[in-house]
Specification:
The protein has about 425 residues and is α+β, with helices and mostly antiparallel strands. The chain contains 14 helices and 16 strands. β2 and β3 form a beta hairpin. The longest helix has about 30 residues. The termini are far apart.
Length: about 425
């Protein structure tokens, strides 16, 4: 399938919104920070994984709301299966949305191409490589277009480019300064991430190159070149590296070893590394216990921290994705007919068994849920019939309708 069109010529006055996407930004530590190098850092990787997998695993549903305010899953709509199972023939919706959130976390934007038939119906949705995209506002028309470099050699002098109109691309932008394209969190926070990468590299080199029994040799007299090389080579082979830690030293010729008393703890290396973990987690708004740091967490606080994670970390991105999808994947006519896209957060907000059943009991007594509603939430088969669909309320546990009619539900007789 040929996805690309090529009917665009660039005007030097066109405004490019994505000027820094392919830039390699060097931090003050000298470390070059890119989305790829940042993702190799354990904390960045963990934070992105928590966010992307949490969001991608949520059910994403196309609903239709009728005139009475009742909503139903719009299973008859072609978009329903694309969002729930496979946006195209090659990837699942989990893979597609996981990539989407990763792009937003690292680069600030995600782009997918929308393939439609002659009727305007969406046939498939294909994720695009964010590093190859340019977003421009044409000076001639004021229209925003997306230019995609699909040349095999991305650094070619005259690469092959394709233009996509605004309605041919699903564009989800993160935090933005211009309201069009998101900014790259990695580029803006390169100092903090670069410092942490530098410290991680320092620690790795310390264990690779440092002899853990570090110190100085004191020898009477002067060694010959041959004796010096033999001693140096023998020491490195026998004692250098992590696998040779804590081996006893074998000295000869009256040599003495004097330990240098500076350790990682003395230089506050471990404390600084811990602070960097907190700093990077703050960038992504991921609680520390979500990346396996339980230092400040306990059983009572974890539930509230997890609830805060859903509300303050996931919800802004979920709303951003939903609104962009409704803008780009639904027509104005469909939106007016009541179609909308929504993530189902109930699985993340369910709580433990005791809390759930206490809330179900309250919902049943107050006529909020039916028995079948609760069984559906617990992935169980419905009771069915009149009882399964009936709503109850406090008193004689009768239905709301019977209370209004003055009828006893069990006996079916009119109250005196």
């Amino acid at each position: 399938m040929n996805f690309f069109t090529n009917s665009w010529t660039q005007d030097s006055t066109d405004e490019n919104f994505l000027k820094i996407f392919n830039n390699i930004v060097e931090s003050s530590t000298g470390v070059k920070v890119t989305p790829q190098s940042a993702l190799r850092h354990s904390v960045v990787f963990a934070c992105n994984r928590v966010l992307s997998e949490s969001i991608a695993s949520l059910p994403l549903v196309l609903y239709k709301e009728d005139e009475n305010g009742n909503r139903n899953k719009a299973k008859e709509h072609p978009l329903y299966n694309l969002l729930n199972s496979n946006p195209n023939s090659e990837v699942t919706t989990m893979q597609w949305r996981e990539t989407m959130v990763t792009n937003i976390n690292l680069r600030g934007n995600h782009f997918s191409q929308i393939i439609r038939n002659m009727k305007g119906e969406i046939l498939s949705i294909w994720g695009l490589d964010t590093t190859r995209i340019e977003a421009k506002r044409l000076s001639s028309t004021g229209e925003i277009v997306y230019i995609y470099n699909y040349d095999m050699d991305i650094n070619a002098k005259n690469p092959k480019k394709a233009v996509f109109k605004f309605d041919e691309i699903l564009h989800v932008a993160g935090l933005s300064l211009d309201g069009i394209c998101g900014i790259s969190p990695i580029s803006y926070e390169r100092e903090s991430i670069g410092l942490s990468i530098a410290m991680e590299e320092f620690g790795a080199r310390y264990f690779k190159n440092g002899a853990n029994a570090s110190g100085a040799f004191s020898i009477q007299g002067e060694l010959t070149d041959q004796a010096y090389e033999r001693m140096k080579t023998g020491f490195e082979q026998a004692y250098q590296g992590l696998k040779n830690s804590h081996k006893p030293l074998i000295l000869e010729g009256g040599a003495k070893f004097e330990r240098i008393t500076m350790t990682n703890a003395d230089s506050q290396f471990l404390e600084a590394r811990k602070y960097q973990k907190e700093d990077i987690s703050m960038i992504f708004r991921v609680p520390l216990h979500m990346i396996n740091d339980l230092t400040k967490a306990n059983y009572n606080s974890i539930e509230q921290l997890s609830l805060g994670f859903v509300i303050y970390s996931l919800t802004p991105t979920l709303v951003r994705i939903e609104q962009c999808m409704q803008r780009d994947l639904l027509t104005e006519k469909e939106r007016k007919e009541g179609y909308y896209i929504k993530h189902n957060l109930s699985a993340l907000l369910r709580g433990d068994l005791k809390t759930r059943f206490e809330s179900y009991s309250t919902a049943i007594k107050d006529g909020i849920y039916t028995l079948d509603d609760i069984l559906k939430l617990e992935d169980m088969n419905p009771v069915g019939g009149e009882v399964g669909k009936a709503r109850f309320m406090q008193g004689a546990m009768t239905t709301i309708e019977n209370v209004m009619n003055g009828t006893n539900y069990n006996k079916g007789v009119q109250n005196a």
